[in-house]
Amino acid sequence: MKIAEKICYLLLLSIIATSCYAPLAVSKLEPLPNQEKKWHHGKEIIKNEHSDISVQCMYYKSVEKNLIFEVEITNNTGKSILIDPNKFYYTSYKKDTVILNQFVHAKDPELEILKIDKKLSKNHANEKNRVVNGILNTTLQATVQGIANSATKEETEKKLDENEEDLEDDRKYYMERHATLSDQRSYWETMLIRKTDLPSGYTMRGYVIFTRNHLANFYGLNLAIEKHTFEFDYKQILIQP
Fold first, then answer.
1. Structural fold of domain 25-107+192-239
2. Is the pLDDT of residue 4 over 70?
3. In the predicted model, what is the mean pLDDT of the chain?
4. Mean pLDDT lowest for which of 100-109, 129-138, 145-154, 191-200?
5. Is 86 exposed, middle or buried (0-12, 13-18, 19+ CB in 10 A)?
6. Distance CA 45, CA 54 (A)
7. CB-based contacts of 200: which residues, under 8 Å, 6+ apart?
8. How many angstroms separate the Cα of 26 from the Cα of each of 139, 192, 214, 240, 241?
């Protein structure tokens, strides 16, 4: 290797070794004035009512690239109403009249659950394939060494034990991944507002998740229910860790 190439290689290794990921800023969303608000456990709740439908929205927190809101919907219309998070969206603004994004829809819990189910299926298949391949590899090594008689009994047993330990480590990895994915599925299944026919006289509550826009100064959150749109306006403040 030439001197120049060695220097470039060493510089590249140095950059990789010293580089690191900068922490994402934390989003703090504050309700804008002239909205019906109240405090609850340190969080401000905005209330919006129309045609016997009451909607309360509370900004919960930002997690990585997501904004999480807790929403409560009460139906007193005398009939069932359809609650569909696919009809929830926001418009983000840099200034009052400068629009950054329009119609950024909430994440669909059913789609997220399907994505996780696909990952669970792949994880299960990968685990089975690894176990089968591990058993075949161990059996083949033992057979070849036995035929060739190139290793002592102790050496063969040691190698087989090492293969079994590797296989057990892989089993633990797939089990842990399965548990993590199952926890994620349970969260989307039980904690999120999902498409539901809400009977009259009933209330539903859950999280609604949007992709965050770190360039936005303001969000206009719109929850479309039946023929009405319930709007909640926020100012975004970015806090560096």
1. Immunoglobulin-like (2.60.40)
2. no
3. 85
4. 145-154
5. middle
6. 13
7. 75, 76, 77, 78, 79, 80, 81
8. 53, 22, 9, 6, 7
